[in-house]
Amino acid sequence: MRDPERQARPPDASDHDTSEHGRPATLPAHDQPAALPASDQPAALPTHDQSAARPTHGQSAALPTHARAVTRPAHMHHLGILAHSTEGAALSFLSFCQEGFRRLGKHDHPDVTLDYIPFGRSMAAWDAGDHDTVRKTLAVSVDRLSRAGAEFFICPDNTAHLALERPGPALALPGLHIAEVVAEQAARDGRTRVGVLGTSYTMEGPVYPRALGARGIAAEIPDPGEREVVNRIIFDELVNGVFTEDSRAAYVKIIERLAARGCDAVALVCTEISLLIAPEHSPLPTLDSTRLLSAAAYEAAAGLRPFPSWRGGAEGLAS
């Protein structure tokens, strides 16, 4: 991974949205997206990038509040968002709340708390391949989410799941595993060979081959040079809120080559990629890990899918 000291950062960006006592602040339902801490707001994207806010393949379509009467569940579980990168966590928060708006009506969604230990504090461990140390850092966030009242968590960072899958003490909360959610959607869509775009750690790691393979789906990754391009754009641009036409064109060419190799979908498994590649940009149907995870989190919070039981490690994951 790239040295975080070399990454461009907005001068007023906050690394950490916890209080001075180390406890994460719950974001009330009336908070507007502009109030999100530690994020380069997706709302600031240029006009041509606003399409990134549209539902992707496998994501529920918008449900206008006037379309039908909405019955609010008697109890909705409190979600904790375990942030590990700024843009992906901000998009996850927004898309989770928007899922509530679509399902429940204006300004309503399950309670949600976000905790973010600065990404840069884990970079040395990532560069050293020390996933156990990264897991310990992530576990601190899960513990703080639990103490803030969250009942389950999601981590909108695919690479972080390399560390979360490591053996170790059970996490303080059960969580939804992002690769399981993406692989479930790929299976529902009848996919047989899925291209995987993410950080080099994710593309070359075992998380997606395992999750897809358990459902009889082959995982295909770009060639080494193309993987370097995908990874560089993520760390030089996307995680810093930079989205350019040149980078979009580079990704589209890589997706075209995955299609030529027999892929019938592409999984966007760095949570920031869907801010660059909307469905209409892609030569293949997309599996947007961020929005799929947020929709699944809403369903778990509302009792529309089984409540998660995974607490880190490999136990309970499809294999």
Structural summary, described in words:
With 319 residues, the protein is of the alpha/beta class. 35% of the residues lie in helices and 9% in strands. The protein has ten helices and eight strands. It has helices at residues 86-104, 123-127, 131-147, 160-164, 178-188, 200-204, 207-213, 224-236, 245-260, 289-301; strands at 79-83, 112-116, 152-154, 175-176, 193-197, 218-220, 265-268, 286-288. A four-stranded parallel sheet has the order 2-1-3-4, with helices on both faces. β3, α4 and β4 form a beta-alpha-beta unit. α1 packs across α10 (289-301), α5 packs across α10 (289-301) and α8 packs antiparallel against α9. The longest helix has 19 residues, at 86-104. It is globular. It starts with 78 loop residues before the first strand and ends in an 18-residue tail after the last helix.
Task: Point out poorly predicted stretches.
Answer: 1-69
Largest sheet: 4 strands, parallel
Determine the number of helices (DSSP H or I, runs of at least 4 residues): 10
Straight-line distance between termini = 28 Å
Secondary structure elements and pairings:
Elements: E1 79-83, H1 86-104, E2 112-116, H2 123-127, H3 131-147, E3 152-154, H4 160-164, E4 175-176, H5 178-188, E5 193-197, H6 200-204, H7 207-213, E6 218-220, H8 224-236, H9 245-260, E7 265-268, E8 286-288, H10 289-301
Task: Describe what is shown at a glance.
With 319 residues, this protein is an alpha/beta fold.
Jot down its keywords.
single chain, 319 residues, alpha/beta, 4-stranded parallel sheet, 8 strands, 35% helix, disordered N terminus
